[in-house]
Amino acid sequence: SLIDSPVILKILQNWVPRVSHYFDKEHYTYVGHQIVIQESIEHFGAVVWPGALALSQYLESNQEQFNLKDKKVLEIGAGTGLVSIVACILGAYVTATDMPEVLENLSYNISRNTQNMNTHKPEVRKLVWGEGLNEDFPVSTYHYDFILATDVVYHHTALDALLATMVYFCKPGTVLLWANKFRFSTDYEFLEKFCNVFNTTILAEFPESNVKLLKATAREN
Questions:
Q1: Which pLDDT tens digit goes with each residue over 111-162?
Q2: Where is the signal peptide (predicted)?
Q3: What is the pLDDT of residue 168?
Q4: What is the largest CA-CA distance in the chain?
Q5: Which long-range contacts (CB under 8 A, 24 or more apart) does 22-26 make?
Q6: What's the rounded Cα separation, in Å, for the pair 106 and 46?
Q7: What is d(CA 29, CA 204) in angstroms, rounded to the nearest whole number?
Q8: Global pTM?
Q9: What share of the chain is helix, strand, coil (3-state, %, to 5)?
């Protein structure tokens, strides 16, 4: 239930100050690894948003509660790939998905940060919310232990398609972890719909960043 009191956290400034003057690379440290993320100013999906930092930090700190080792993990709206890279470091079989125009930067970041690691090789795939799910990810073949989503809700018109996509992948036995910065009334409207569809708990709040981290599971019919 939502009654459980969420833990109140702060997003730690655990990125390394950049030495170069270019705005295209950010350096982070999670789970003992330095991660270098190339951002792109052309696309929303190619910037590291606070929800990604919040979820990365939470996964690092709560490895007993959410053990990703050898688990199948799907990230929707993976953006720059930071969360997928952290999940990979934690031992998951990761599939990172996003819109076609974001995939090149996403693939670059993921391969660059995981190539020398002794981990399962992550996969990068196109996923447009609500489109071609049965064809591209048939239920008979694809079952995920965890669905990860960060800052997927902002001013855009694809919210119904996003919710449908979450419902499609969040089968019984799947845990959905969603971290988001809440800015607009539409964000809270989506949250209300989300809570009506899933069994939902707020795991953590990051008040300084207006980020909430939610855990959701499928409702038993």
A1: 999 998 888 999 999 999 999 999 999 999 999 999 999 999 987 789 999 9
A2: none
A3: 97
A4: 54
A5: none
A6: 8
A7: 21
A8: 0.90
A9: 30, 25, 40
